[in-house]
Amino acid sequence: MSARHSHSLAAKIALRYLFSPKSHGAVNVISAVSVAGIAVATAAIVIVLSVFNGFADLAVSKLSKVDAHLTLVPAHGKVIPRADSLAAVISSIPEVAAAMPVLDEKGLAMVDENQIVATLRGIPEGYLATSGLDGVVIDGVDYVGDTLGLRCAIVSVGVALSTGARPGSSPSLRVFIPRRLGRVNPSSPWTAFRSDTLFTAGVYQTEQAEFDADMLMMPLPALRRMLDYNASEASSIGIWAAPGISRARGLWWPGEGGDD
Prior knowledge:
Layout: H1 3-19, H2 25-63, E1 70-72, H3 83-91, E2 96-111, E3 114-123, H4 127-131, E4 137-140, E5 145-147, E6 150-156, H5 157-163, E7 173-178, E8 193-204, H6 209-212, E9 215-219, H7 220-226, E10 236-241
Parallel strand pairs: 3-9, 6-8
Antiparallel strand pairs: 1-10, 2-3, 2-7, 2-10, 4-8, 5-6, 6-9, 7-8
């Protein structure tokens, strides 16, 4: 007997047993409870899987607003030398839509007496549009750069709530970073820090706590000056794949298979 006929026969026997009249009431009750249990369990599994699929889609769509598809980090030390040149070479690969240097550092963000320890991220021109972060700005404008003598930044909703930074508000947002080079005068503690004044152009929200809590996006050249890095150093390079590119299309990166 083939598997198909066997399954069909089993289904017929089950249906006949389920809907045929029984002489004992207990059998009817057991059948009804069994059917109800299976139906509830199946519905619960479908609902749970649907919810988790929705969470996965939401997480991917929101995380992609901040992080690149791939991130290149230094094997040793904190920065990548000649990061701008390397990003330009990577961008020339046909399967790569864009590659941009990024500089991250912890610092203090302050408006008046309100302050928060924030993650300062220096980004180049075009980063917001490439990453899609411009689509989650909830207040102000999606602009990071220098204009009319002002260094414009966008802040996460957590930084905005903690410091009171708002687009177009006064006073401006000040950021402080411990001095990386040079000696510190103990009699003047403030000389141990480098500072800059930023204009809050916008506030963004990704609905992901780790990115909404304490991140501040500022111009890459300004953060490099604060940290005394040269004009080509960065802590990472963000890489965005071209539309439709995946492993199935043959885009393999070092460490993912094949020869490095």
